[in-house]
Amino acid sequence: MLRGEAGKEIIDSTNTDGISALHQACIDENLEVVEFLVNHRANVNQADNEGWTPLHVAASCGYMEIAEYLLKHSANIAAVNSDGDVPLDIAEDDCMETLLWAEITKRGIDIEAAALGSDINKTWRKELPALRRQKRGGRSSSGSGPAPVRTRRRPSPGGSGAGGGLATGHRGGSAINVEA
Asked: Which residue has the higher pLDDT, 177 or 91?
């Protein structure tokens, strides 16, 4: 078993992409390993090199049980990745969006304000409008301009969002192995 601070360092160690064992367990849809890691104090909010937390992975892959488990263990629902996306932005299906909206409402979080106030966004807040235009394929907020290649808008509560996020960089294997 992993014990003490040395164990904490081991359990949260990452590969060169910043992917931890908890990220990998989420990618692999392995709830048993997710539970093991969290029970041994893995950081549920640890971000990889692209700002993806385990909740981002679970949301983008549509792994409801893992997302629910992470949320019950204080996963940050307003964590912003390097693309400016919170887990809701990259949720793959309506059930996941419903789960995330319910948790946002329960926690009383203003998701837009949280995204704009994140540490990641503080460093490039001036670039955010251009980034969002680029994500919309160059369209202004009025909808004029070329059609987007890939668009993912934050759906409204109870609505169904079109499109789908990709867990780019999170579908392959990792060098981290964990034995439960």
From this structure: 91
| 76, 45 Cβ separation under 8 angstroms | yes
The structure's pTM equals 0.67
Tokens found for residue 62: 């549509």
How large is the average pLDDT for residues 85-109? 94
In the block, tokens 């439960």 appear at 180
The helix-helix angle for 64-72 and 54-61 (nearest 10°) equals: 150
82 contact partners, CB below 8 Å, separation of at least 6: 50, 51, 120
Q: What angle do CA 158, 163, 164 make, to 5 degrees?
A: 95
Note the residue count of the chain. 180
Strand partners, 14: 20
